[in-house]
Write a structure and sequence with these properties.
mainly alpha; 122 residues
Length: 122
Amino acid sequence: VVPARASTGSSGVIHRAVGHGRAVLASDLPDFRALAREEDLALEWYRAGDVTSLSEALSALLGDPARRDALVRHNDASLARLSPRRMVDAYLAAFARRDRIAAPAAEPHPSPLFAVETVTEA
């Protein structure tokens, strides 16, 4: 259960629970919805801050082992697509595409960090 009333982005708690093969019941917050959509995670939802909604959703999820198993299987498949190795490969491919389409670089300017001044005594 992720009982947040507010969020400022992605949730490490959700990632950790999904990574440990758990079905997740989360507050229905825009950040959590975006996380689920962007990473193709299957979560169960309840209205944030609503104790009755939480109780009903939790009872429904605990009473439905087939639903919990389906959530876990779905999320396992999503995590496999987002493995660290695949993420690294995707970044490397994106950088390679960028490098292939990048405009020719302008003449490099000397770095002021390495500028050498000649001091003459008068």
